[in-house]
Each structure stands twice: as C-alpha cells, then as structure tokens.
Specification:
Order of helices and strands: HHEEEEEEEEEEEEEEEEEEEEEEEE
Strand content: over 45%
Radius of gyration: 19 Å
Largest sheet: 4 strands, antiparallel
Number of strands: 24
Strand order of the largest sheet: 1-24-23-22
Structural class: mainly beta
Length: 284
Amino acid sequence: MPASKFYIERLLLLMLVYALVWPLSLSAQDSLRDGHSIDIAVVDFEVDNLGNIYVVNQNGRIKKLSPQFDSMAVYNQVRQFGELFGMDASNPLKLLLFYRDYATVVVLDRFLNDRATIDLRRSGILQPAAIAQSFDNNIWVWDDLDSRLLKVSDAGDILLSSPDLRITFDEPPQPQTLHDYNRNVYAYDSLRGLLVWDYYGAYKSLLPYKGWQHIHSAGKGIVGMDDDKLMYYDPLSPLPVILGNAPPEMLGAKKLRLWNDKILLLKTNGHLLSYKLQQRQKTL
C-alpha cells in the first residue's frame, strides 16, 4: 500500500474515533443529556453491536432490551451453575454466559434460548479466568492454570492453543478480560497491561497500560478509563490516545459501555442509565 494512502486511512480512522468520543471532553452540563433508565436493580450488563442491552438482576435473571429499553426476551435458568461471572455479547446472534466457579460456558441464541452448555473441565481447562467470542464463531478461553490462550468450539473441542506464557514471563499474567477485535485477541491484566495475540494464537506483545477500567472495543481498537481520562488504543499506533476528560457522571461508575452516540452507565447503586452524547457547540 502506498505510504500516502496508508496515512490518509489512519487519519480518517482517528477522525471517526474522535467524532464518536470527543464530546466526552466537555463539562457535564454540556456533554451528556438524560436518556433512558431502568427501574430494576442491575448487577451487570453488556451491549451488542446492534445496541441491544443484556441486563442481569440481583437474582441472576437476564433480560434483553432494545436500544430504547423495550423488553425483547428473558432468560430464567440462572441458578444451575452458581453466580454469573460475565457475558460476551459481541455477536448479537450468540450470547455467551460465563460461570467461572463451575468452569462452564452457556451459549444462548438471540431469543435467549439455550444452544449449548460447555463444561470446560472436560476439555482439560481447569481454571478458566476469562472468555470471549472468536471471529469464527468459536470461543477464546484464558486458562490461568496453564497460562495459555485456547480456542474452543461449542462442542468443547480445543481447536487452538497458544504457547505457555510461563516460559515468556517470570510471573505469568492473569487477565481479567478477553476481547476478539479487529484481527487481534486482547487480554487485559490490570497489574501488567494489555496482552495481544494474533488469530493463530501467537503472542505478539505486552502493552504497559496498567490500571485501566471499563475495557471494551470501539472503532478499530480498545477503549478504557485511566483515572478520569478516556483512553483509546489503536493497534496500528505506537501509543494510546487520550480522548478527553470524563464527565462527573462517568466517574465512580461500576461499568460503562459506548455504543454509537450513547453511553451506558451502571452505577454502584444498581441504576442503569443511558445518556446521549451531544456535539460540542463551537463559538466563533
């Protein structure tokens, strides 16, 4: 690719990302305006790339909501495998539920009907710490016991295994989250940083971005919060970009997600709020 074309494409990408999150550098009075809220006490949530929201209540019940917060489906079989540790909603047609204490992944369809139940212990994965949907409709799993990234099918077959990272690191990483995005697999360890693999399970790098919160994918890379700064990491850029200061509403949130021109915030009191980002009004 000619150098001029490459830099033009990178510039356009950064312009797109800034267009998405630039309003977050404003003051609270100008940057966010009230949108929807949900009355039930929410313990956790995720959002898919269509804007559908998956909320978990205190009893572990999962409800799927439209971007307008209208109810679409409910999943009630929530106490078979203990406490729900996390969800992956990156594929709107396939929701993954991760029950870490039971080393089990439950696969649901878009109507929240059961598609599969995967006991990872039967696959020899005894201490799974994080999961993510893979680009080819399988499942990435990080195994803390063997310090490996693995790819597993819905039938529980191991399709790929990375080298043991205990060979690479004196103290192996312990990622809390996994993300498959834009031709890379990311594992985030808040004490060590962002680990990157390619789609063949080859370890690429450890990026020293420690202490970030609310890690999720957006644009062509990864978004997170570093103290009161909203950060963006583009795999083709050498350093992360500070996108701006977060409004007060975002500080202290239990969880946040960006989707298009909206931001979803889960407060520590269990309130889930949806805000619409406003564009900056420039003065001449």
